[in-house]
Amino acid sequence: MGRPISPDLVYHLRTVADPCLSPDGSRLAYTLAWVDQDRMESCSRIMMLHLATGETVPFTQGTRDAAPKFAPNGSVLAFLRADQQGRRQVWLMGADGGEARPLTGAPGGVIDFVWSPDSRQVVFCADLAPDAPEEFSANPSGARALDGGPRVRVVRRIRYRYDTVGWRGDAHFHLFVINTASGPARQLTDGDWDDVAPAWSPDGTRIAFISGRRDDRDIRALSEVYVAPAAGGEATLWSQGLTSVGALAWSPDGQRLVAVGSEAPEGLVLWQGWLYVLEQGKAPRRLTDDSLRPYLGFPFVNRPAELRWTQDDRIIFLGETRGESFLFEAPAAPTKVGVRRLAGGGCQSGALTLDASARRAVVLSSSPSSPGALHDVDTHSGAGRQLTNCNKEYLREHPPAQMDKFSIWRSDLEIECRLWRPADFDPSRRYPLVLDIHGGPNSAFYDSFVPLQQVLATSGYLVLAVNPRGSSTYGNDFMMAVLRDWGGEDYLDLMAAVDQVAARPYVDGGRLGVHGYSYGGYMASWVVGHTNRFRAAVVGAPCIDLVSMYGTSDIGVSFGEGQWGGSLLDAAPELARRSPIAYASQVDTPVLLLHGEADFRCPIAQSEAYFVALKRRGKEVELVRFPDCS
Known about the structure:
Layout: H1 9-12, E1 15-21, E2 27-36, E3 41-50, E4 56-58, E5 65-70, E6 76-82, E7 88-94, E8 101-102, E9 110-115, E10 121-128, H2 134-138, E11 161-162, E12 166-167, E13 172-179, E14 186-187, E15 195-200, E16 206-211, E17 224-229, E18 236-237, E19 244-250, E20 257-262, E21 274-278, E22 285-286, E23 293-294, E24 308-309, E25 314-321, E26 324-331, E27 340-344, E28 348-354, E29 360-367, E30 370-378, E31 384-386, H3 392-397, E32 402-410, E33 413-421, E34 431-437, H4 451-458, E35 462-467, H5 476-480, H6 489-502, E36 507-517, H7 519-528, E37 536-540, H8 546-552, H9 560-564, H10 568-577, E38 591-596, H11 605-616, E39 621-626
Parallel strand pairs: 34-35, 34-36, 36-37, 37-38, 38-39
Antiparallel strand pairs: 1-2, 2-3, 3-4, 5-6, 6-7, 7-8, 9-10, 10-13, 11-12, 13-14, 15-16, 16-17, 17-18, 19-20, 20-21, 21-22, 23-25, 24-25, 25-26, 26-27, 28-29, 29-30, 30-31, 32-33, 33-35
């Protein structure tokens, strides 16, 4: 039997990301990433895979290269490379190799870019800090005044920090256009809001983008689609009727857009969106229902997957349903033919690229037995093959855990669960059980490789991963059921799943543990405040005091008001009642707190307060802090 997967897997596993097919479908560029253990740094470079031969070669020699994109004519590859200040810039390199050269020098760095249809220009999204010296734009988290002393920071708006991005102040993301043969960059958008996700029209005359320019933008995280002339000029609203938008693409004739959007006033498009056709001056037309969720990634962490409107009027996109990912197609025109699955299932997919004809697709997917691989898919037949297997040797020596999927029923709702078992599971033995709780609350567990679950399960634990009400990919009503009910029916769903599994003969009911991060940390701390059945709890980045979270989290207002039942002015008693810290005196379970010191989403003060509340009462508790981590 092989060895268990241990926490040092971060030094051994390599990850693939950012796949991009050449227009003719003959080559695939992608990012290969790893951790340099000696330097304790994350590294990445661009790889090139020749699909006909299977040969893969390093394309760049940098250690911080990512996000490759072929020019539409296939002659040049653009990618992001970090400069000496750590700011990502667009670089260009001939598709057949050669010397790379920088294209942009944005003081705040580039977060996204797109080629023009004629391969002569690039539109990019960059950070813009008005009235700030370049030194501040380059390093906002450690800015210094011109005399070398610390700079004073002035806050004028509620959303002045973003988790994973850092201090924002008055900075915003805006769009710029640059000619690849000669600079300088020309600013396309401006204003006291963020403009992101640009998409060129097929004729190159217009650029569509997602904008957060609503009047209530400081208190609600909503967004709209605008279209502006590529040469500059006034932008026009195209998404009237939608409250939030997460991705978009042009129709081949340039008269319409397809967008992943939502009409929900809460603006939860990230967790449940629908496909819409947008046409200027017309109401959005919905193409999909909530039996699936188009994949959108996570802002500033994972980019949305490619969304393609084909020449024969099909929309090809990645979507998710019931904790599984599929490659879908939907007819763009009204028809009796509905959404069709092209490939997938039994996995979680996080990236999609198509060639110019949309006949060939490459999908990045993780499965219960693989942390991630690229797969080649024929979009007509659905036939596919695996292209990469960079962790083959490690997984041969460290066999992954096995997954069983089952459901329980509560109040006429089906609650789907996944139970991870050691690779050498023996039903005649008795195993300790760990309940793992996902974040969100509108996230979900998938048929995928989760390192923490693998480490525990291959070390001899059973790991129970439940998708309680509030989880996404199970329909909009199921997802919205958690709003204004944190610690209510969601908690009872989790306990019912534990009851069912703990009754099995191979589970040692006297050795139960619980773990969760973010909302999962909230729920783990709520659990130990309401039951003493667990022998240990690992509580990661919890929000234990919703009253203070409201004013200190980067999304306390925009997210919290919808999730918790209102503002602090009118819902303070309910926020206090739903706060785990109110039940600290009832905790008898030993608690290990984990928290990043740079976490703006669930600020570390949440763990600090919970630590003191437990320690002052003589409880067994430790706090582990991760410097500079979000």
